[in-house]
Amino acid sequence: MADWATTACVRTGGFRDEVFLKLLGAVALGTQALTTLVEAQRQTYLSELAGLAQQRRAHTDDPLVAFLIDAAIAHTKADAGLLDSAERHLSPLAAARSEHNRRQPVEPDRGPEHGTGTGGGKDQEREAWSDSA
After folding, report:
1. Can you say whether residue 16 is alpha, beta or left, with left for phi > 0 and alpha for psi between -120 and 50 degrees?
2. What pLDDT digit, counting tens, does each position of 56-110 carry?
3. DSSP 129
4. Are the beta carbons of 124 and 118 closer than 8 angstroms?
5. Which of 32, 69, 70, 105 is deepest in the core (most CB within 10 A)?
6. 125, exposed or middle or buried, with CB in 10 Å at 0-12, 13-18, 19+?
């Protein structure tokens, strides 16, 4: 137990998070989608922080609970800060995708039995994505 409790932790699960996946999806849809997601996610983080602050005030007499809430606050603040980075780094990519989408509108998906409506199926979708990258 002493060895385990006194050695540093190494992240083994990576940094995969649904927010990152959503950000990539929003970039593929263009500027408006990225802006909408970032604003909605920022509001969600602010709401979480408000709730955590309330919990923190309610548990000032319990050091262990206060510490865990402080950790949750720190993680949430860091996540909120990443939204600024996402806007800064991903906005140019989203703008390029918006321009690509404006020049080449995609027909609505009519379901798997009809392909994508453009006759190209999944191969054409992959080509459209790779053109924007």
Report:
1. beta
2. 999 999 999 999 999 999 999 999 999 999 999 999 999 999 888 888 866 666 6
3. H
4. yes
5. 69
6. middle
User: Are the CB atoms for 23 and 93 separated by under 8 Å?
Assistant: no
Cα 67 from Cα 120, distance rounded (Å)? 55
- The amino acid sitting at 52 is L
List Cβ neighbours of 56 (8 Å cut-off, separation of 6 or more).
66, 69, 70, 73
59 DSSP 8-state letter:
T
pLDDT band for 11, please (50, 70, 90 cuts): confident
What is the spatial distance between Cα 89 and Cα 93, in angstroms, rounded to a whole number? Answer: 8
Enter the tokens of residue 58: 């309610």
Q: Which has more confidence, 71 or 16?
A: 71
Identity (one letter) of the amino acid at 29? L
How far is Cα of residue 13 from the mean position of the Cα atoms in its chain? 17
Residue owning tokens 């000032």: 60
